[in-house]
Write a structure and sequence with these properties.
homodimer; Jelly Rolls; four-stranded antiparallel sheet; 8 strands; DNA-binding
DNA sequence: CGCGGGTTTGATGATGCTCAAGCCCGGTGG
DNA sequence: CCACCGGGCTTGAGCATCATCAAACCCGCG
């Protein structure tokens, strides 16, 4: 057996550990430069996990045990209101993080669902792993604070937008802030994210309805 | 001169230090019990400040240098959109905190304004003071993390509410979640907070318009 | 081929906005 | 002390936006 073949076999046996961390390390390095040694330490705390389309990472009523980093595929988090309508809180593409911060921190049951919109490769971090990791690589404190900040800003912007803009303006803003989303996310989910009905979104996409 | 007398004199000279910290310490103790010694340390980092009605704590374009704790009175933060309409992000009553987290953390110019809706007594904390305080009283890390969490949850709830509820439902929710607000906040400001026009709010408050 | 989910299209109605006028009340100056 | 002013609240009429309900359509898939 040649070495190349052996390597192939090896990769096949523990495929996750080898190739799944590239994006994570790249993203971290963008904000907080870390050494190769720190990278190596960092890797040890994550749990690689694959999720197939429509599978759940978190279901309403359960405690959110992980924060998830998306290496491949995409996730969404959403609530279901009293009328049974879904409200998408967030999409998470490659390179994004997703969890229910509140449930994760307090260990109380979540009001959100998280599921896969495409087949996914995720890196999961438990609370104890996160804490240990921050002790071993304190630089990452800064990285996680930046993440939290960014999510706070994003959601504030979205709130203002939802209070002051029309459906069409909100849609354009979404396309602008997240190019390519229309190619990957079904339309009725974008509608759910924007807080409008699928019919309305369909209509305002149709140029025939353009105002004079 | 006895020590007690000296203390009295000392307190007399800087009167703020005497009565202005009660609510702050009480609020902290509700979530994170601290010793009298820690309380004393804690006090030294805050800058007491009085603000008269309509005065600004932060103006759009400036860097947010402080987080403010409200001992008396009330504050609001808001943005002005391209059409010139104000959008109130948050009210802060006695015992609440307010700042622009983003500008405070990054030292970039803020997009928000913060001003006083009533004469106020505030306790201000600068970034260096905060950091030093957290070193001296590490228990407070937890307290501040809880604050951040709570604001994240609150704003998420508000977003879902703004996407899924009618003007009336949102108004009722506001009254329920913040009793007494109608007695202290002018109506057009509640409208601004809810993202509706003053006229609409006025109408849905009038029982004559009640649906059958 | 037929089924089913997602999207489109149409008709109708409710909700909330805009503009405009009137009202109430507290504050100011004569 | 009163008249006047102005800000905030109310009321009204008309209109734009968007939701609802229903039907048709499109297309991938078993």
């Amino acid at each position: 057996m040649k070495i190349a073949e052996a390597l192939q076999l090896f990769l096949w046996l523990i495929p996750d550990a080898l190739y799944m961390f590239e994006l994570l390390l790249q993203k971290i390095n963008e904000k907080v430069p870390i050494t190769p040694e720190e990278s190596a330490v960092c890797k040890t705390f994550f749990i690689p996990k694959k999720l197939r389309k429509k599978q759940y990472l978190l279901q309403e009523g359960d405690v959110c045990k992980y924060v998830a980093f998306v290496e491949k595929g995409m996730l969404r988090s959403y609530t279901v209101d009293d009328k049974g309508t879904e409200h998408i809180m967030q999409f998470a593409f490659e390179g994004w993080w997703l969890s229910d911060q509140f449930s994760f921190l307090t260990a109380e049951p979540s009001v959100y669902n998280i599921d896969a919109l495409e087949d996914c490769e995720l890196l999961l971090l438990t609370k104890p792993a996160e804490e240990e990791m921050l002790v071993r690589v304190p630089k990452l404190e800064r990285y996680f604070r930046l993440l939290l900040q960014n999510s706070l800003i994003a959601i504030q912007r979205r709130l203002v937008s939802s209070l002051s803009h029309t459906a069409e303006e909100k849609y354009r803003q979404l396309l602008a802030s997240c190019p390519g989303i229309a190619q990957r996310v079904p339309q009725h989910m974008m509608a759910s994210y924007l807080g409008i009905t699928p019919e309305t979104l369909s209509r305002l996409r149709n140029p025939k309805n353009r105002k004079v």
